[in-house]
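Duplicate of #3305? Posting structure anyway:
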């Protein structure tokens, strides 16, 4: 674990050093859990957003996008349940004065038991080799059986406490499991309290009687209150979806792990409106399709898993998370929820307006059911960054830090470098940049040795480096160096566009999903 922490620290400092992510307000000592994206970060982030947006709106004829305002009528948050129920259970340690989410402390305890089980299985697999029967081992090994029982009991108790909103019981679980504060190491816990995560502000001058409004904690409600506008003006027929990318704000109790948990973050949400009774079929569809979107990036299929929810939110009848293996364990990156007709019914009730859909095939009016896919841009960014980072030992004892970013997401697609700063090579290199820049984000670099220039591009994940040398002037060929293999091939300048395009275009990624 210590080693994993080290890797994570290195990733965080790499992100800063190479212009991906900066602490917000850094020269004023920073603002907790708020971050700014730098010159490379913003490109990576935009590419992630484009991949999502195009996968949703180009590949699905029946999905369109919107961009709704962050401020909305405050009654929307009453109707959605956020004013009354968007809470986290918090607990303080009296000695360290540190604050924790009670549910997260217990989830970490569950993960510890899971880890022990997996370690036992892995050890046995190694010992027995090919003859290992994993299912049989899990069913019969006394230690594993005991641990599974312990885990299931804890899990059941925890799920019940969360469902019943029983804060005393959550505290009792923490006491009974002897969970200690990671900072003070003591069990000196306060009571568990509920804490609402919405930021409030005031709209209008106080003289007019200002109205309390909220910074939206999710983008979804902007879609719900517009669904009929879009349906009517876009002549959409059920099933159809509305996608949106935008900022969301949550006053998170604990903000750790860099951009994993932020107070201001960005979401990519899609609400898919379906006939009542068909929601679970569509839930399965979107569950599978969203995982496919992740896996197409080629970061390793084993890094993903589903985590089905036990405590369903007040609005859901099925929910799962797609988790990604970060250096600090498997963590939620995306949620897929079957939200029933809860939100639309609530808005109908609170607004007093009829927002039912008329289904021409059934010749009836109904309130559609909704499947939501909701992914955090920043968490997705973090998963891409973590899985791409490598400190590589090279032949000859040299090392390099390389980001193996999926090529279509890389901030810079190619860098063009004259071998020396004279003999007409810079001019030729510039001419190549001027041609490629219309299609790919292209950099020109002539400073330092060629080796150093390659390292700089490796560190920001540039898939291709093009080197212009004296031979280029004679036969119009350059060396094309590939980031991951470091292989260099001699290619004609006229072929560059095609060779690069095949690897870096978003198009090729989208085709994998078709
Ligand atoms: P968590 O349990 O981690 O607090 P959540 O279940 O409350 O997350 P959702 O409400 O389902 O999250 O939000 C959908 C997605 O938005 C999450 O999967 C995550 O990627 C992202 N997200 C939520 N909260 C944050 C945050 N504070 N910082 C960054 N991303 C977030």
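Output from current build:
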């Amino acid at each position: 674990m210590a080693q994993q922490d080290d890797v994570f620290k290195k990733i965080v400092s790499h992100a800063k050093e190479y212009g991906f992510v900066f602490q917000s307000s850094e020269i004023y000592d920073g603002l907790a859990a708020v971050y700014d994206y730098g010159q490379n970060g913003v490109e990576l982030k935009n590419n992630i957003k484009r991949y999502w947006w195009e996968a949703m709106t180009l590949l699905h004829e029946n999905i369109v996008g919107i961009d709704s305002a962050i401020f909305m009528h405050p009654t929307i948050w009453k109707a959605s349940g956020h004013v009354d129920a968007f809470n986290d259970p918090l607990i303080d340690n009296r000695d360290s004065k540190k604050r924790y989410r009670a549910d997260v402390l217990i989830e970490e305890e569950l993960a510890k038991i899971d880890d022990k089980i997996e370690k036992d299985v892995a050890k046995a697999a190694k010992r027995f080799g090919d003859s290992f029967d994993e299912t049989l081992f899990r069913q019969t090994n006394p230690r594993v059986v005991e641990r599974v029982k312990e885990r299931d009991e804890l899990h059941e108790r925890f799920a019940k406490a969360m469902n019943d909103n029983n804060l005393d019981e959550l505290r009792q679980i923490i006491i009974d499991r002897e969970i200690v504060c990671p900072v003070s190491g003591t069990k000196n816990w306060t009571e568990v309290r509920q804490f609402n995560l919405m930021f409030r502000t005031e709209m209008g001058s106080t003289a007019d009687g200002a109205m309390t409004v909220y910074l939206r904690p999710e983008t979804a409600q902007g879609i719900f209150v517009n669904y009929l506008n879009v349906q009517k003006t876009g002549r959409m027929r059920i099933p159809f979806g509305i996608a949106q990318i935008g900022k969301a704000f949550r006053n998170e109790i604990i903000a750790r792990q860099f951009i994993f948990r932020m107070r201001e973050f960005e979401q990519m949400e899609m609400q898919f409106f379906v006939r009542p009774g068909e929601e679970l079929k569509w839930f399965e569809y979107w569950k599978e399709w969203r995982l496919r979107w992740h896996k197409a990036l080629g970061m390793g299929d084993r890094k993903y898993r589903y985590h089905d929810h036990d405590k369903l939110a007040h609005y859901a009848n099925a929910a799962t998370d797609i988790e990604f293996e970060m250096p600090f364990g498997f963590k939620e990156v995306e949620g897929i929820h079957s939200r029933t007709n809860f939100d639309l019914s609530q808005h109908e009730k609170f607004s007093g307006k009829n927002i039912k859909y008329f289904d021409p095939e059934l010749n009836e009016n109904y309130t559609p059911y909704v499947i939501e896919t909701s992914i955090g841009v920043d968490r997705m960014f973090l998963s891409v960054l973590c899985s791409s980072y490598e400190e590589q030992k090279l032949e000859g004892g040299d090392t390099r830090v390389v980001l193996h970013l999926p090529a279509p997401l890389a901030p810079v697609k190619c860098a063009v470098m004259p071998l020396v700063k004279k003999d007409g090579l810079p001019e030729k290199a510039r001419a190549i940049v001027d041609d490629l820049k219309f299609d790919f984000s292209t950099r020109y670099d002539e400073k330092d040795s060629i080796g150093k220039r390659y390292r700089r591009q490796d560190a920001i994940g540039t898939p291709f480096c093009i080197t212009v040398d004296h031979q280029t002037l004679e036969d119009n060929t350059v060396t094309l160096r590939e980031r991951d293999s470091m292989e260099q091939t001699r290619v004609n300048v006229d072929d560059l566009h095609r060779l690069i395009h095949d690897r870096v275009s978003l198009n090729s990624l989208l085709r994998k999903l078709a």
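Confirmed duplicate; merging threads. The chain has a mean pLDDT of 94. The pocket of adenosine-5'-triphosphate is lined by residues 250, 252, 261-262, 265, 267, 332-335, 374-376, 378-379 (CB under 6 Å).
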